[in-house]
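Job type: complex structure
Entries:
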Amino acid sequence: MNFLEERIQKDGVVKEGNVLKVDSFLNHQMDVKLFDEMGKEFARRFEGCPINKILTIEASGIGIASVVALHFDNAPVVFAKKAKSINLDGEMYTAEVESFTHKNTNHVIVSKKFLSKDDHILIIDDFLANGCALQGLIGIANQAGATVEGIGIAIEKGFQQGGRMIRNLGYKLESLAIIDAMDASTGKITFREQQAAHH
Amino acid sequence: MNFLEERIQKDGVVKEGNVLKVDSFLNHQMDVKLFDEMGKEFARRFEGCPINKILTIEASGIGIASVVALHFDNAPVVFAKKAKSINLDGEMYTAEVESFTHKNTNHVIVSKKFLSKDDHILIIDDFLANGCALQGLIGIANQAGATVEGIGIAIEKGFQQGGRMIRNLGYKLESLAIIDAMDASTGKITFREQQAAHH
């Protein structure tokens, strides 16, 4: 097991309905030293990619993306914002994102000032399940004409279809922990085997 | 001028109605190397305070708080979340926060699991103007019985009352840049003099 899988095993809580609670270290309380390890590992996995910008989505992607970005040279973070209203003035890239947790649809926006065809983007997010948020971020990158160099995810629910779909589309998707099964009654979490993280 | 004042002077845009746009480096696109400098400076200003946790509020506080937290030993970040609905089941600390920008009131929540009377908190946020967000965060810390060791702000609008009120209450409030006046017609920004940042 790598460092993130070990932490999920130790502090993650499996709930009914394929819910994994990692709010003690990932998305409410945030262990930034763990994020720093994740940054080192993403830098290793995306070594040689000409990444000049990190793209993420509010709120829980922002902390990870910010610490990860310190491991790339001159790569600011741009985060997609949840729109209060749909802005049709042409200054924003927009995407629709369905939320599985909240059972609703949000529009997210990125100012056109901060993404262009010259950008080589690494997309970072905390979770990948059905892939709706990620599709929105890729859609925004495509609207800008930017190149998606890769996608780095902390935890992928491998038993949902998001990861397979994104890989089928040809994107370089690296998830630090891929969960193939979890059992709320026993708390058991089964991780997909992957090459050992350099830790 | 310190490093943040210089950056505001260079890349900030003054708009009518005392609006300062810093979305190219602080709160939409985020220069994490600048946040790293801010972390060094906050670590210097709060040296000797027994800080074990950083508290902030979604969304734009999260990136700064996460990078700043790397400069403190074993201090995870907890961010107050905008509540979808008011949760009355007793598992959350809650506060009301008025938004000046959006002219509405949000409830923000922090899980009781992540703040307690044993915590010594540094509150971090990007902006301080009328102080509503900060009052909410202090209120949540007080509900938990935690000790607020200090408050670190990137940009304070010194011509609004939030900073004076918080200092009058006796909190150790450190703002890296305090703006005493700005003029949308000329773009001129006047900073309050403070001791030089160790840079």
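Summary: The domain at 3-79+115-191 of chain B is CATH 3.40.50.2020 (Rossmann fold). The CA atoms of residues 97 and 133 of chain B lie 6 Å apart.
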